Task: inverse folding
């Protein structure tokens, strides 16, 4: 039975350690790689909670798509590391303030009665494995109780997508574009022309 | 509780798990060797050559000789490279292409881990495969590998979208994400018949996902030397090579499970259903792998803009349309499987 706590502490230890490395490593590419490691370990924690669908979605969406684009951008940027270090002291007070606010909020959450010790056990223990897969349960809740909110989330993403397209799309004047359909309709009759050439005159 | 209880609780199950893992990985690695041989032989036949014919009878041991030669060579690490990431990249690629085999059902009950979200796990692991390539391209600190990595990242992300929609179409017809249940749902008819367009989209996307011809732009030798593994040599090159072919076999087994009925015989009649399921499963995988090699021998390489056009402007709308049509069909005729 002690395999469960061992894996829990392994995943959470690596997740926290790699989260620390994200903010402390000098090379931004290494930071992104540690961020990915942290995502994967959080996915492992989800599996331990019995939420395998959420774990897989986390890997597919965040690791497989979002972090790839992160890595893409960070690799392409030409970052001056020394200048980046200079700003550290400037942002330190603001960062500390944010950290303190987070700690206060979390401690309020844990000190109030809703998270008191007897209730905490109900939250923290892994859910019993029942006949219904959690993929189905999530679908059932998402598409009935939270249907409108879910649709609004989709609309927000659509707006963000249209916004980013309008920001980056610009008319670059004359560019040659291929028309695939017209290329597909090319046949020998249109492409090749037979000519009788007289000797010594050329076409 | 006696003193040896940990033996029954931990050691014995652990040993069984290790035995299961080896029973899957070793056949996969050996089949990679023969796949390389088969590819060279089939390409040779297509191009009216002899192919490997010296090492062993009909040259059948050629891949083992090549592997031995590559591993005994010196492993060169470029001086400007990021050493840790450079060495990590091939290891990650190899581990990911083997880790996915944990959920593949070879025959009824023949699966290491029969998890509820099997197909999601496969999709997740195959979407991680791009990291090995990006890391290799970046860590090499060289122009050609970097260009190869950029091409590969864009290509794999684009084709994953249509693969995702194809998987959703199949899931709508099954009502479960478990791979064994997906196979069992095809007992009446293989999904390749009712979902034929999706089968073709999936096969072509699988070619792009494994960086195979005609979409092998990340390792396009006529423009990028060898693409993302230009700087790799010796054992780390072998890992990339093995991983590419192992993921080819993996994608073919995914195709077989989703569309060609996994371990099921083509017709459920006596002499056919007496043959064990593993035979049908392997035979179908070999057929898909033959298609992979046949395509390589036949089609010219795509240009990069053509590749992107195919992914975003042809496959994405088509697969999206099929998701809507399939869902509408199932709801209209009240055929939605496995409802709550």
Result:
């Amino acid at each position: 039975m002690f395999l469960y706590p061992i894996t829990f502490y392994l995943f959470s230890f690596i997740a926290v350690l790699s989260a620390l490395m994200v903010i402390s490593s000098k090379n931004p590419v290494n930071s992104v790689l540690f961020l990915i490691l942290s995502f994967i370990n959080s996915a492992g924690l989800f599996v331990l909670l019995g939420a395998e669908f959420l774990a897989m979605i986390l890997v597919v969406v965040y690791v497989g798509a979002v972090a790839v684009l992160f890595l893409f951008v960070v690799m392409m940027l030409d970052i001056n590391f020394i200048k980046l270090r200079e700003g550290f002291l400037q942002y330190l007070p603001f960062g500390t303030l944010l950290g303190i606010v987070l700690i206060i909020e979390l401690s309020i959450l844990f000190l109030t009665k809703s998270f008191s010790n007897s209730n905490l056990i109900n939250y923290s223990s892994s859910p019993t494995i029942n006949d219904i897969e959690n993929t189905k349960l999530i679908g059932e809740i998402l598409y009935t109780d939270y249907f409108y909110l879910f649709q609004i989330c989709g609309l927000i993403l659509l707006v963000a997508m249209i916004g980013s397209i309008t920001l980056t799309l610009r008319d670059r004047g004359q560019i040659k574009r291929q028309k695939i359909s017209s290329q597909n309709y090319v046949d020998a009759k249109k492409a090749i022309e037979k000519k009788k050439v007289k000797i010594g005159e050329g076409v | 509780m006696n003193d040896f209880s940990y033996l029954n609780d931990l050691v014995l199950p652990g040993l069984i798990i290790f035995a299961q893992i080896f029973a899957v990985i070793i056949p996969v690695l050996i089949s990679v060797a023969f796949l390389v041989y088969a590819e060279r032989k089939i390409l040779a036949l297509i191009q009216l050559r002899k192919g490997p014919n010296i090492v062993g009878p009909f040259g059948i041991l050629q891949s083992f000789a090549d592997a031995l030669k590559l591993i005994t060579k010196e492993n060169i690490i470029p001086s400007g490279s990021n050493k840790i990431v450079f060495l990590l990249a091939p290891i990650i690629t190899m581990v990911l292409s083997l880790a996915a085999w944990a959920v593949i059902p070879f025959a009824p009950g023949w699966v290491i881990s029969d998890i509820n979200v099997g197909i999601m796990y496969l999709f997740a692991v195959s979407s991680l495969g791009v990291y090995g390539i990006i890391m290799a391209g970046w860590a090499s600190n060289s122009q050609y590998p970097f260009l190869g990595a950029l091409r590969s990242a864009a290509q794999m992300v684009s084709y994953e979208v249509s693969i995702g929609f194809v998987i959703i179409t199949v899931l709508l017809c099954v009502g479960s994400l478990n791979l064994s249940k997906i196979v069992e749902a095809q007992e009446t008819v293989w999904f390749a018949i009712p979902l034929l367009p999706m089968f073709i989209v999936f096969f072509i996307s699988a070619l792009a996902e494994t960086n195979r011809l005609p979409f092998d732009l990340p390792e396009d030798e006529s423009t990028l030397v060898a693409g993302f593994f230009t700087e790799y040599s010796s054992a780390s090159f072998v890992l990339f090579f093995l991983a590419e072919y192992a993921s080819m076999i993996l994608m073919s087994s995914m195709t077989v499970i989703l569309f060609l009925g996994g371990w099921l015989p083509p017709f459920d009649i006596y002499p056919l259903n007496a043959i064990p399921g593993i035979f049908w499963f392997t035979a179908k995988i070999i057929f898909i792998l033959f298609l992979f090699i046949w395509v390589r021998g036949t089609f010219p390489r795509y240009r990069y803009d053509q590749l992107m056009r195919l992914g975003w402007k042809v496959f994405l709308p088509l697969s999206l349309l099929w998701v809507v049509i399939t869902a509408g069909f199932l709801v209209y005729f009240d055929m939605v499987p496995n409802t709550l």
